[in-house]
Automatic annotation (TrEMBL):
It comes from the Bacteria. GO terms for molecular function: 2 iron, 2 sulfur cluster binding; metal ion binding; oxidoreductase activity, acting on the aldehyde or oxo group of donors. This is Xanthine dehydrogenase YagT iron-sulfur-binding subunit. Keywords: 2Fe-2S, Iron, Iron-sulfur, Metal-binding, Oxidoreductase. Pathway: Alkaloid degradation; nicotine degradation. InterPro entries: 2Fe-2S-bd, 2Fe-2S-bd_dom_sf, 2Fe-2S_ferredoxin-like_sf, 2Fe-2S_ferredoxin-type, 2Fe2S_fd_BS, Aldehyde_Oxdr_Iron-Sulfur, Beta-grasp_dom_sf. Residues 3-79 form the 2Fe-2S ferredoxin-type domain.
Amino acid sequence: MDNQITLRVDGADTPLTVDTRTSLLDAMRERLGATSAKKGCDHGQCGACTVLLDGRRVNSCLVLAVTAEGQEVTTSDGLATGGTPHALHDAFVDHDAYQCGYCTPGQIASAAGVLAEAARGWPSAVTEDLVADATDLTDAEIRERMSGNLCRCAAYANIVPAVAEVAVEQGVRA
């Protein structure tokens, strides 16, 4: 069964007719040409398809496109402002936090979500102070929160410092 929806991806509204079984990832890549989010496992296990849905991290391969209508979808590309890279983009380059680059857009979208979660004080499995207004993004916190994003090239040793640098700039790391 087909449904007429409007997806808002990276600030642009696009009307689409989609089958109710179409994933957000497939709608973005195949119908909108938004190829920042990658199809890795297509089972929600690798994080290559991570995007922000109304500011919260999701694996877009597990979200039905019809459920994303009326919500803001932000990919790694959408984090840039007027052609200026986001601080996370710059930090990933500066810290050589990528190898082949396949997982990088998902890693960056996830890192943006991590920074927002920590700023709101949302705890993780390793958070020590559960009643704090904000969570200090220690290396352990970053590793735990980014654990849903896999990198086949094992650039983790460079991803953590890249996220930590931006966390300091945004005041969510001491």
